Amino acid sequence: MPNWYYDKKDLRNTPSARDGVDYETERRYRREGARFIMEAGASMSLGHNTVATGVVYFHRFYMFHSFRTFPRFVTASCCLFLAGKVEETPKKCKDIIKTARGLLSDEKFQSFGDDPKEEVMTLERILLQTIKFDLQVEHPYSFLVKYAKCLKGDSAKLQKMVQMAWNFVNDSLSTTVSIQWEPEIIAVALIYLASKLSKFTVVEWVGKKPEHLKWWDMFVQDVTMEILEEICHQVLDLYQPSQAESAPSKSPPQLPPSKASPPMKRANISPITSKNSPNIAVKTPLPPMPPTEVVEANPIPKHITTENPHYPYPPYPMPPMPPQGHGPPLPYVTMPPVIPPQPPAGWTHYSHPNANKYYPPGPPPGRNPYYPPQ
To answer: How many CB atoms within 10 Å of residue 290?
Structure first.
């Protein structure tokens, strides 16, 4: 079973960071992809588990790949498509693409290429290999409800506090807490945050024992206040405007990486591999990527699908063809001499022990039906 929890140093040394994307920009890309999944899921009436599973796939995927290599909105659509299958709420790929077309601008939707369905379907295979086919994901929702049922106090205040904690769990999907801590710890931290903000102090709870100093000691052992406060601060940072949020939302070159993309675009992709990454990327170094303005200004040529991976044109420019029917005639070129015809080779007679068994020596009898065999 792979380990899907990472330390802070791992989050600072992602493939995107090694590919030149700074930490704040990567955080913004993760927020944009997660919020796109939540908006698309809400538009398609998908449950919270399906949406949360898609977001967790999204965060795990970019621990192995760079945002410069895989467009985040194509990846988000693919994660939601796969999560719908896993959580038994499947949606057709064309419906997800149609929803994405309505949520994204023309510039952002351009990253889907000429055949968006082919892009999503091709990326699904890469996604499955990246997450090592570990499809089942646990979320803090079930633990939040379980823990809340054990708390005692004013029912109205308790219900308000639980609703606030539920909203915090939804918002936490835009952060990386789901790939840093287990869902039990996240549920405890966000209940703790909601109780502080709603001024609901938990004093009594079901199953309280003398050794339990805090109410969460009976559910999660050895969790420190530093961990809970770290989770709370990451969620609260979402509500603070940052410089990355106020800066113009410029995306990296959104080049489709799959076989559905044009070959001239795919040649400019420089994937970053790690020691834990599946062997699905090109290992040879590729030329640097062109500036964003140059790439996005060029029209997207017609793609080549996976059914035709062999490109019918050479990698070099073809010489111009001479004009036909215009200008002086082409110079006469002497052809090489033709080899004169050679006489046919004669028949060669090979002796055989049974050569004279049926016919006498000499020429063959020809078509004489009365020639008796010997």
So the answer is: 13
